[in-house]
């Protein structure tokens, strides 16, 4: 079935490619719409710009949440479940497409869609950064033009029928969700389910970071949210220590300390991560900072330094023995050109360097608990 008609919106035409089922769904604020889309240029070749099927995941928008391409909500609310329709939209409706497409592509690539943006509105960012990083989107940004959207509507869910993603929540809903997620994370830590606990802490941090993006850095509102973020990041890092993800701990604690260079617990967790990957000098420096910043943690630091010393001495002894064994295989009479190590020895050495032993937090110490 093909039918072409104008929607009651200026600059829009619709063609039904495949009819849907049943009545028009009840679209209300908070309803979640799941759909696939394809974006094409309005040229002879109908050049494809984006295709959600190629990205491997359908799109979702929440009705009433001011999606940046406002016309999409209007288009989708004219469709029945299972319907496939083609929409021609004039340039008055497509000016923001380059910016939105950039974000969707970054998500599909596993990157942060907000990476590199200044603290400004979306249109302001688009003017500040004359390049999106994608040549075809740069062309659209320079020359706004009509676009064709082919959409397939899968389902419409009422607000009460699905778990709200954090990005779809209001400010009040995000603030209410944070202490719940924090409490759930702490409960999972007590059960030693560190992976799921880390996910709860991470979700809470995302809620707060989304809210912080709307505040001016280092002003009162931003600082208040940051005070909620810090213990969640520390708890997340504790879980990663337990899971053996030491380099992730180094990354997050270093980032935290760039903003809060007097946080003893962050230094403590970073020191343990350094120790786990054999960074002895860095570990000792961080442990000493902890003792200086928080004398109450001196006993825990002393214990960790003792363990670090024992581990490093044991490692040095093992290394000496290993290297002595290598040189004992040298060709007789050729002191300057020892034979290369055997495959077994090389494999063992590589394994020792790349796979440090687990360094889990100690129950009852500042490293082992959560905030």
Describe, in plain words, how this protein is organized in 3D.
This protein has 371 residues and is an alpha+beta fold. It folds into 2 domains: 3-160, Chitinase A, domain 3 (Roll), CATH 3.10.50; 166-304, Serine Threonine Protein Phosphatase 5, Tetratricopeptide repeat (Alpha Horseshoe), CATH 1.25.40. The protein is 50% helix and 12% strand. It has 13 helices and 7 strands. It has helices at residues 52-55, 70-76, 97-108, 122-128, 135-142, 171-190, 194-212, 220-243, 246-259, 264-276, 280-293, 298-327, 343-354; strands at 3-6, 12-18, 32-41, 48-51, 59-62, 84-89, 147-157. Strands 1, 2, 3, 4, 5, 6 and 7 form a 7-stranded antiparallel beta sheet that branches. Helix 7 (194-212) packs antiparallel against helix 8 (220-243), helix 8 runs antiparallel to helix 9 and helix 10 (264-276) packs antiparallel against helix 11. The radius of gyration is 28 Å and the shape is elongated. 26% of the residues are buried. Mean pLDDT is 82; it is low at 117-129, 335-355 and 357-366. Residues 330-351 have a biased composition (Low complexity). It holds the Pfam family PPIase_AIP. It is found in: Cytoplasm.
Helix and strand element order:
EEEEHEHEHHHEHHHHHHHH
Which structural class do you get from the secondary structure elements? alpha+beta
Q: Give a short account of the largest sheet.
A: 7 strands, antiparallel
Report the CATH architecture of the largest domain. Answer: Roll
Provide the gyration radius in Å.
28 Å
Shape: elongated
Strand content: 5-15%
Unreliable runs, pLDDT <50, ≥5 residues? 117-129, 335-355, 357-366
Provide a count of the helices: 13
Examine the coordinates and then state which fold CATH places here, giving the name of the CATH topology of the largest domain. Answer: Chitinase A, domain 3
What's the total count of β strands?
Answer: 7
The CATH class name of the largest domain reads: Alpha Beta
Mean pLDDT: 82
Q: Could you give the distance between the termini?
A: 60 Å
Number of structural units classed as domains:
2
């Amino acid at each position: 079935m093909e039918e072409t008609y104008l929607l009651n919106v200026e600059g829009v035409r619709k063609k039904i490619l495949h009819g849907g089922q049943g009545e028009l769904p009840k679209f209300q604020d908070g309803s979640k719409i799941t759909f696939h889309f394809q974006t094409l240029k309005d040229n002879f070749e109908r050049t494809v710009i984006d295709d959600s099927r190629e990205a491997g995941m359908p799109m979702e928008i929440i009705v009433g949440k001011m999606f940046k391409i406002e016309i999409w909500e209007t288009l989708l609310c004219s469709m029945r479940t299972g319907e496939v329709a083609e929409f021609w939209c004039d340039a008055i409706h497509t000016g923001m497409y380059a910016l939105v497409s950039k974000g969707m592509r970054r998500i599909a690539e596993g990157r942060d869609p907000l990476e590199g943006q200044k603290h400004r509105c979306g249109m302001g960012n688009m003017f500040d950064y004359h390049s999106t990083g994608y040549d075809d989107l740069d062309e659209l940004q320079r020359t706004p033009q009509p676009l064709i959207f082919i959409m397939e509507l899968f389902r419409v869910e009422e607000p009460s029928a699905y778990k709200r993603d954090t990005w779809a929540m209001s400010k009040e809903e995000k603030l209410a969700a944070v202490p719940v997620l924090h409490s759930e994370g702490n409960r999972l830590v007590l059960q030693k389910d560190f992976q799921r606990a880390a996910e709860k802490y991470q979700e809470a941090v995302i809620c707060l970071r989304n809210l912080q993006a709307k505040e001016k850095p280092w002003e009162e509102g931003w600082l208040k949210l940051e005070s909620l973020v810090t213990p969640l990041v520390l708890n997340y890092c504790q879980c990663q220590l337990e899971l053996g993800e030491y380099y992730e701990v180094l990354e997050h604690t270093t980032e935290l300390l760039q903003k809060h260079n007097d946080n003893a617990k962050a230094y403590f967790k970073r020191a343990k991560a350094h120790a786990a990957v054999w960074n002895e000098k860095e570990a000792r420096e961080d442990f000493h900072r902890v003792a200086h910043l928080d004398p109450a943690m001196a006993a825990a630091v002393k214990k960790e330094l003792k363990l670090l010393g024992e581990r490093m001495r044991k490692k040095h002894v093992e290394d000496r023995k290993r290297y002595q064994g290598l040189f004992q295989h040298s060709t007789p009479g050729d002191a300057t050109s020892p034979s290369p190590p055997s495959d077994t020895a090389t494999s063992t050495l590589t394994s020792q360097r790349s796979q440090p032993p687990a360094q889990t937090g100690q129950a009852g110490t500042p490293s082992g608990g959560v905030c």
